[in-house]
Structures are given as C-alpha cells and as structure tokens.
C-alpha cells in the first residue's frame, strides 16, 4: 500500500471526503493536482464527488487537466465526470486548462471525449488562444489541424497571431503565418512587418503595435516601429496614445524616446486626460518631472475639469502633490463639480495631503460646496484611468 493511499484511508475514517476548504477545495482536488490516481480511486469509493466545484468553479477534471495527468483525466471522465465541457467561473473548461499549459496528450484525449475546441471563456479565449499565447507549438498545430479558426479574436479583437507575437513566441508566430493567419519581441515585430503586416494596423479598440509596446516598456520594438513609419501620436478609440500608456506604467525611457520623436505630452484622450493626468494617477514622480520639463501643462483640465493636482490629491500621492504645486499648479482650481484638490483629498481620507494643501493656501470653503467628510465614493471620471490596468 502506497503512503498516499494509506494516508487517505486514515483520514477518511469517519471524515467527510467532500469537505471543502475556505477556497472550496476538496481532498479530490488535491489528489488530482498531484496526480495520485490511487488516492482518487479510494476517495471516490468512499463517496468522493468528482464534480464538486471550488469557489472558482474548478472541478477535479479541471485540476487534472491543468496539471497534465492523463491517467487521472481518463479515470475521472470514465467514472463520473458529468460534463467534459464544464466551465469554471472564468468560463474555462478542462480543455482550456490542458491547452494553456501545453499538455498535448490530455488535449487530444479531451477532444476525443467531446471537448469543445471552439468553447470561449468569459473574455473570448479558446484553447488555441491560450496555447499560442503560452508558446505551445505542438498544441497549437494540433488544434489547427482539428479545424480551429485561427483568425477568431478574443473580446479585444486579438487573434492567436497577435497573442503569440505580443509575447514573443517566434516559432508559433511563423507557424500561424504559414497556415494563413491574417496579418513584444523585436525579431517577431521585424518578421511580421517583413511579411507585410501594417505598422499602424488597429485592433478592435483602435490600439496599434506601438500602443502595446509602450504599455509593456519594449523600447527596442518602439524604435523599430517608429523607423518603419508608426504614428507616434496615434490615438485608440478612447483617444489614448502610446505616451499615455508609457506614462501610466512609469516607463521613463520609453517616454523620453517617444517625446524625442514628436510625442505630444499634452495630447488629450476622449475624456480630456493628458499624460500628466495618468502619471499622477499612478504616482510616477520621475515621469511627471520629465513631462513638465517637456512642456506638460500641470493645469490642463480633463472634460470634467480635473487637473493633475486633483488626480494626485485624490489618489493620496503627497510627493507628486508637492511637486505639482512647486511647478505652478493652482491649489484652488475647481473641477466641473466645484471641487478642488482639497475636496478630493479629504473625501478619500488622505490626511497628509489635506494638511499640506492647507499649508499651501487651500481654501476649505472654496467653490460651491464645503469640504466633505472622508468617504469612499468613486468618481466616474477617475475610474476611467483604471482602464489602463
């Protein structure tokens, strides 16, 4: 008798084999993750439910497929797995888990048992999207040979090719192109462009390769894309530029290069947000210092009247608040609701920022309303900034 099965028998004497942890995990989940088939057989003989779902909706089958245990996967399906296409809370099936993690044998078996290769997760991911994004060439080839549409896009419009190229899986990218995929790392970018890909091609959200490279801080790709004619001030459907992405994520080297190539630091999104607004939201003081040195307007207002100071105070960034005031930010500037930076800081309970604003002449009775007590209400305009995350 193996130590694993011996332990399982000892624990199951009078115990509830389907007892769940705070995460909803059962003993069967643990055994499936480790690949202990003998334990799984015993627990099932004691009434273990292979279809029991964790808090995230994972069944024993999901876990076995994720870990690549083919023998466990086969046993679960043959002995009680209700649905091979059962979804977890993210809309993912066991096939998603197997393909995402490169388990070709499990992927093949699940398909032979009725696994839906076209099944989409909540964000539109299929097994192919996951295999391509994670660089699993063998799984990618197999799925395409099974008739999967390689040009189908996830919810943001990106295809398996976009996902593979963005992460830098050159072998998967080349294969997808060789199979007729419609047209990161520099070699992938170079390869795509050499195959006729349009440098300013937009996704469904209006983003280009330059937006993605700036978001992820890939300076070498940015230099190459610009040398090939990428539009440095190209705006997405929301009016976001590559500079906005770089500023939000704090990529100072990227920001310096983009501005040297004509990037407009005061370019506003559809909501009127500049690079200074988004840098202030994230608290990137070094970025803010550079942007102001390049002509960034600290008093530029968004469509709702927010200045960079409003944003910094609202998010509790004292160092940014101090710097902006030293650069001429208007301490009593009101937004469209008549609120100042002081109003926003106090609403969020940022005592240090509130005190500093008072010391710099902030008027607590300025505007149409008085400074409120701290609260946790979310401003709709500020929530727009969180789209960058």
UniProtKB/TrEMBL annotation:
SMART domains (UniProt xref): ANK
ANK repeat start-end pairs: 23-55, 56-81, 90-122, 123-155, 156-188, 205-237, 238-270, 271-303, 304-336, 337-365
Pfam families: Ank_2, Ank_4
InterPro entries on file: Ankyrin_rpt, Ankyrin_rpt-contain_sf
Highest taxon of the lineage: Eukaryota
Cross-referenced SUPFAM superfamilies: Ankyrin repeat
Keywords in alphabetical order: ANK repeat
Name assigned to this protein: Uncharacterized protein
Organism: Strongylocentrotus purpuratus (Purple sea urchin)
